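[Meeting: bench + compute handoff]

Bench side (C.D.) handed over the final construct sequence. Compute side (W.E.) agreed to return the predicted structure before the next meeting so the bench team could plan truncations. Sequence as handed over:
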Amino acid sequence: MSGACEDRSRRWQEIQKGLQFIQSTLPFPGSQDQYEVFIKELVWNLFGEGNDVFKEGEWTKSIEMYTEALSIADYADSEDICIPTSLLEKLYANRAAAYLSIGLYDQALEDCEKALQLNEGNYRALYRKAKSLKELGRHQDAYEAVAKCSLAVPRDPSVTQLTQDLAKMLGLKIRKAYVRSKVRTSHSPSYSFMNLGSAENYKVVYVQCFKKFSEVDFRHIPRCNGRAFSSLFNKTPMGMAVGMPEVKGPSAAVDLAKNPLAETHEFRQACSMCYIKTGPGVLDYALNTEEHKCKKDALLGRIKHLPDKAWKLIRPRPTKTQYVGPYYICKGNCTYPGHCTFAYCQEEIDVWTLERKGFISRELLFDPFGPKSNVRLTVPKILQEHHGIFMFLCGVCFDHKPRIISKTNKDDPSLCSHPVTKHDFEDQKCLVHILKENTVRYSKIRPLNHQCQLDLCRHEVRYGCVREDECFYAHSLIELKVWMMQHQLRISHESIVQEAKKFWNSTASLQGAQVRLIAQRRFGPPNLKMMFVCGQCWRNGQLSEADKNKKYCSAKARHTWAKDRRVVLVSSIERKKWTTVRPLPTKKPIPSQFEICMHVNAGKRCQYIGNCTFAHSVEERDLWTYMKENNIPDMDQLYEQWLQSQKPGWGEETSTNSVRENGKQIHMPTDYAEEVAGNHCWLCGKNCNSEKQWQQHITSEKHKDRVFNSEDDQNCWQYRFPTGTFKVCERFLKGTCTEDDLCKLAHGEQELKEWRERREFLLMKLAKARKDHLIAPNDNDFGKYSFLNTEVLSLTAVSECTTLDALQCTFQ
């Protein structure tokens, strides 16, 4: 064992030296033949290292090794050095196996095709091609690929199993293979198989290609768990890299997958002492490498392989804006440094975009288990960032289709609160993170085990992973962080719930102390009196405050007492007259001091009264200054604090035991005390207490729009929305199409390609919604998305398009 470790260490040193040399412009100290041997050995070493890390379960790292080897092979070709075709074939086939292991089926299929171009008889590449096509929902193509593979290795159990699985999905009759009797003589060798012809001789007549969606019984469809293929084989595993020993069981170590930007970007941590401002520009910084105690509170990044090697500061993503489009770089000299919502560099755009989509967390841009890391996750730290509460719910109800939210039964804590089923709560409970904002969002936290991968599931982020608990990747950022914390602290789910309760109890005590402190001091500027009145009555010349219950104003008209219908009035000692005060200006940054509008000073009427950022009275200036100095961002919070000053306990939000942090409402554990017995829509965050209400919800247009819509619709698609006709317009190619965007046909191959990709994406989202019973079984009215119905029911265009049945089977 020690000898193998020494050989591997020596090989890694040779790889580092080789990469360092070819990245330089130094001449090779030898002949051209020696240089050719040097390059080939470097490629072979990378190939061997990729196989070893694959065997250890580090699939992302193995992809890096294979990719580096293929890049050097391209470089060698430019130097008139020919890398053996057999080695290139193995590199593509092995990288395809690694891509399959992490669920990147498109990339795996592409590598399989490249390997088959070099050797069309590579049965490992054929098998992996069939697996990739199956996962992508292209079942007919997958069947044809595995049929060719079965001719090469007819008795391989994994190939046989895959063939039978695909036959079931295609509705084909499954038959046993004929086994020839073994005849041995002293002069004749033993054959494991014979060349009985091409795949064309073994094509089966399809009785029925696809069934209707409602006829598919998903309970009998075999599942694919997406792990490395070593567990599937009795012989040399077809899903593993060529030439590597068999892996017995899953890797014991938890694999920390690289972040999505690892191949193109570099990141490091810094602080104000090591990253120093050198000029007036937003990018005028220099990195100081002297030894000091670094706080590591700033994120730096740079793009690899660019001439500019300077580290760029990556600020926190702006969150106080509803903008959902792509990010752009700030033009010219920024006049809002520190508050600008435009990016200052491409590195900032790349990180912000993935952060908003939930693909990465800043803490994951570094190895959280590295020797110099300061990332130490705890329950309070997670809740401070993500808010909400950790709680146990009934796992059986939570996994029900559709989802049901049930807690412990009040009368019998050993049972769940569902009025009919009443499952055994202690045996079936699951840990859930609950976040209550405009709606309630539930995130299940599955138990951490040695198979879990510390990375986000890309399927769950895009359209929902239908492998659910069988998936080894985290299905939410909160689940990922809990897994990381458990890996560090070995903390149980019970301890997480207890720590969460302690955190919120201490937060509630602190909030109570803050409320008492506010009540003790006089509220508002010392020279002003303040009151809130009904805006509708004020316009009619009346002063009407809220009634005792604060639902209506005290006037006879009984106007609704809502946030947008009340105004704040102030009266100064100098001028005993009530004056309205407008909301604080939204212009950023807020000026160091507020000034009086020059129009008002001149005794004239301001022409920009709706947008003027200058105060229109001394009283307004004084109140704005008070709000700025006391971190009161809007009139709603001003009203809440004013209510508390009048009589402690009157606040609308604080009465529900809520806290505000940075202007955002934080709900306390008492906010989650209600029990829900009906169905819960995880897409919309809506609970329905009756079957009628549930049917009304899932058939509503707003809900259907949530089924198909996502952030990708705004940021990922460049061309028009698909019309349902997936053909290129011949008139457009000739330059004679006059219909422009009204044309039902695609304007070019690129638009057609995007239409097909978008169709696949929408079908996957629809398949997930169907599986979770978020679409009524007989509901096919999807508005502009109704063209997907033709994809579901079509039996004639199997080779042209992917059907919903195929996608559903793939996900099972």
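W.E. noted at the follow-up: The two ends are 41 Å apart (CA to CA). C.D. will use this when planning the next construct.
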